[in-house]
Amino acid sequence: SSALTQAPSVSVSPGQTATITCSGEKLGDKFVSWYQQKPGQSPLLIIYQDFKRPSGVPERFSGTTSGNTATLTISGTQVVDEGDYYCQTWDRTAACVFGTGTNLAVL
Amino acid sequence: RLQLQESGPRLVKPSETLSLTCSVSGGALTNGTYYWGWIRQPPGKGLEWIGNIDYSGATYYSPSLKSRVTLSRDISNNHFSLKLTSVTAADTAVYFCARGVGSCAGECYIDYFQSWGHGTLLTVSS
Known about the structure:
The structure holds two protein chains of two kinds. Chain A is mainly beta. Helix content of chain A is 0%, strand content 49%. Chain A is built from no helices and ten strands. Chain B has no helices and eleven strands. Chain B has strands at residues 3-7, 11-12, 18-25, 34-41, 48-54, 59-61, 69-74, 79-84, 93-105, 107-116, 120-124. In chain B, the strands form two sheets. In chain B, strands 2, 4, 5, 6, 9, 10 and 11 form a seven-stranded mixed beta sheet that branches. In chain B, strand 7 (69-74) and strand 8 form a beta hairpin. The interface between A and B is medium-sized, with 24 and 25 residues.
């Protein structure tokens, strides 16, 4: 299957580590990107090619991919990190695929 | 600095054709190995890829929308366009244009979307 599955929501306390996972067939064999989207805004690329950060993205965002799972980790989560997070990859059969999205709440 | 701006009607009737344009400034459509594309997001839902047109004019479409989608580009005016035929209420969404980065190794693929437009809400209703 080309679907990418994410937990609908994740909650974390300020300063703690948030972990958002993305599951899909043989994700470890593909490049995975991550996007942050805040209400009313367009998505923002925060991780590409599994673990690389675009210029300007804080170091507290990191990514790893192994097996069937890609993981976005936010260390020292801040209230400003609240929003929706989407993973994305390219699947040879389904082309570009986005994950189902995870809403991160920082409480 | 690259900027993308979506434009087009905000309301389309069922069964008609949706047409949107993305105007690009700060970067030419034929420069580099970029993939210019469209992603949509129904209200309250997730992102769905529609398709891309690359620097050479080659097109890539979502299998689920392929029969209804056409992407094209106007190099002289530096914009690219989306046409989606036979629209229904299910096509109501915010439509984003974006610049993708990818490569070709036997076959071409889009790696990630590095720049996005602000998006435009298109409603399908009679």
